[in-house]
Amino acid sequence: MCAYRERASHAWTDSSVRLAATPSAFAKTSLFYVQEIGHFETLDRYFTEREQLDSFLIVFTLAGRGRLTYGEKTYSLLPQQLFFIDCMNYQYYSAEQDEPWELLWVHLNGAAVRAYYEQFAASADVVLTLPQDTAVPGLLRQLLEQHKHRSYRTELVGSKLIVELLTEIVLAAWELQLPASEMPSFIGEAALLMEERYAEKLTLTQLARCLAVNKYHLAKQFKRYTGFSPNEYLIHTRITHAKELLKYSDMPVAEIAAGVGIENVSHFISLFKDRARHTPLVYRKMWQRLK
Fold this sequence. Notes:
This protein is of the alpha+beta class. It has two domains: 173 residues, Regulatory protein AraC (Jelly Rolls, Sandwich); 109 residues, Arc Repressor Mutant, subunit A (Orthogonal Bundle), CATH 1.10.10. Strands 2-3-10-5-8-11 form a six-stranded antiparallel β-sheet. Strands 1-4-9-6-7 form a five-stranded antiparallel β-sheet, with no helix packed on it. The chain is elongated, with a radius of gyration of 24 Å. The termini are far apart.
């Protein structure tokens, strides 16, 4: 692995803003945090080339045109477009010659940022075109203002804004790949059937027959649009209802298992522990102590 390397031409207007942040120990261990943030109006010789930086970078183009090389591909960067990259990987981005590039940007990190990045990278190309009404530039401006006028609120509010920013970006990537308007109606119907009939012995074949759809097509499309297989969705629904009974009733565990459609109590305990990190009895005792 090579060492951190950066080469750059810091060519931007006097009105541009660049702010560095020094996160507290609390922010580094518990929050999403800004490392650097800014708003640039670049000059035509502006560029940055780097790799092996422990940071994630989000850049939103406001006006003009830029260019990005990342992952052995080169992208043109236009207004309303955003890129989200892992700065450990090689990157080169620059203003197009003879055309100013105006951008909002943030270097950020935090324990869960990589998980958001991986969701984004799995759903979209590096460069994403956002709709005109996107909240992303507004969130970046708010984040920038928080760091212009630092106070005891900055890290907590900044973390909240970063969560909103990452959520907007990942949802936009998902919706580009899987527009809600194109989701087959049987996906929602299948989910509703499982919510209503979770206590029954409901197989994929029965579910498909109820919906008049091929079971293999149902399984593939359900996973595509929900992220769960039908069986995993049904188990999730059963465990959720079991939690309610464990919290708010005195029913024995075996009776709860049967009541949510799982007759084998040992299998129920195994499924519950895998998804709730505790056995049903430990989970019940935890909630009884809280009450």
